[in-house]
Amino acid sequence: MTDQPAGTYAPSADMAANAHADKATYEKMYAASINDPETFWGEHGKRLDWIKPYTRVKNTSFAPGNVDIKWFDDGTLNVSANCIDRHLATRGDQTAIIWEPDSPDDEALHITYNMLHEKTSLMANVLKEMGVGKGDRVVLYLPMIPEAAYAMLACARIGAIHSIVFAGFSAEALGARVNACDAKVVITADGAQRGGRVTNLKDSVNQALLNDFDEVKCLLVKRTGQQIAWRDGLDYWLHEMEEKVSADCPAEEMSAEDPLFILYTSGSTGQPKGVVHSTGGYLVYAAMTQQYTFDYHDGDIFWCTADVGWVTGHSYIVYGPLANGATTIMFEGVPTYPDAGRFWAVCEKHKVNQFYTAPTAIRALMAQGNDYVTKYDLSDIKVLGTVGEPINPEAWNWYNDIVGKGNCPIVDTWWQTETGGHLLTPLPGATATKPGSATLPFFGIQPVILEPTSGEEIHDTAAEGVLCIKDSWPAQMRTVWGDHERFEKTYFSDYKNYYFTGDGCKRDEDGYYWITGRVDDVINVSGHRMGTAEVESALVAHAKVAEAAVVGYPHDIKGQGIYAYVTLMNGEEPSDELRKELEVWVRSEIGPIAKPDLLQWAPGLPKTRSGKIMRRILRKIAEDDFGALGDTSTLADPSVVDDLIENRMNKA
Ligand code: 6R9
After folding, report:
1. N6-acetyllysine modification sites (predicted)?
2. Does the global pTM surpass 0.80?
């Protein structure tokens, strides 16, 4: 580490010298991408193989009433051919996907690009055989098995649009999504195996399709071999169908602007929105960010621990890495099975070079102690990444010191389902990091901070407000499936001529961005605006605290009071003394204004299955209004809610 202000971590000279971009290169490329996006993206679009090369690059408008986003729109290509076929001549025998099964006693699979080509082509022909054609929708409800990747690429190959529903979602949620996109086929498995437990997926599918969808066919992968209820004439085993079709399936010529996939994501209100991503722009951007953000080099082993049911899995397990000819790991299991060392065991076993996970996983593993990490050889790791929520400095430091041994740059990547790829992120060889900051924009991204009420852009370097993006980038979502009006209303109407992210953000005097959380998570205490993440971060910095979630609740005098839910480290006992200690601690970390008014001991926090804390539920409980909790079916463990209600601090 070289000369640098306290609290920042500059890339080592070695990293800077060998990376795709050092600081000067980043600055030069960034300036070029903003000053002349046409030329910049015109050049970088060539990283893909085009059937008919584009002559137009950027054709985008954020204008009220006329939001229209098109990139490379007169070009044609196929995503599956870009992720597979074009690599066959040079790397057909290279591993494309390492599949690590749930149980460490079962063997990992090394799927070469040649095998990926065969399996994808077979599945593509099976889908055709089942009547799926260009533009049709196919829902995937699959565990983390190789067939999930084959299915995505098979859809892309024949121009069908996939919509993945996370396999942890309920039958009800699945049915709603099948209905919303009017899917022709659901691809699923008999069962899923995760954390040593087996669940029956086919039952959920049957339940989802029971009444209203007796036309929807189902393609089944055999994973667990368990008993399932068969629907005659509608259900097909993949392995039987594969026998009937050829392994040769030409890739369909698609327009750059044809939809590649739909992914439903929940907003702050109402029904989940079907986020639509494109073929050309999405793949250019997913591939480029995978290469630059993680400083991926040929031959590296890349592991993103997300599930393909989330956008992170789409862009950084499948599309980005495979477009780059990378070796990408797909993990069926969970971080704590058979024990809390599993991530690190897998890193050692497959000699992982870039490791990408979520802060919630880091905090959970941190609470289990360092021994689970230190007993493994992690010396192949070069870059560590995080995504999904702000990372508190405590977790950042643990990740840096214990996992990275101080040698691995941490890339804190801020982005959204809607953005397709990273928008704010350090580059390992270019950006000095600061714990908790997603640092600087990726190429082509113009973040702006607006004064929330007036919508005026704040031009001072140091600023705080809502985060918007001033101009389009190639992987921006194109529309909400079937509802372009909702697209405009959600993202372009509160602040005209900008893309509104829904996140609050601070920019420091160095121009670094610090996400403060969703705007609806910002609380206002006695006229002071405070990010709940700030208070959480302070709490988690205390040695006895494993995790904390903070929400606002109505307070007679202050407007909003601070309500903190605190999960203690293993072996720590709640006590009044400890409560006082934490209050004093937060006062001293941030100031008296941040002292929680109410602090509840929470053995567990309500989380979505992707690990996001459901603050909506915590707010309701804090408001003593738990009769109206809304839908809790998407929680990883709905039972934690009962305990929180029982022991709430704000009983009338
Ligand atoms: C990729 C993904 C998007 C929301 C986003 C923000 C939060 C994601 C973050 C982060 C702080 C980061 N978020 N990454 N907050 N630092 N590095 O997570 O997509 O599920 O759509 O969530 O997640 O609030 O607006 P998605």
Report:
1. 612
2. yes
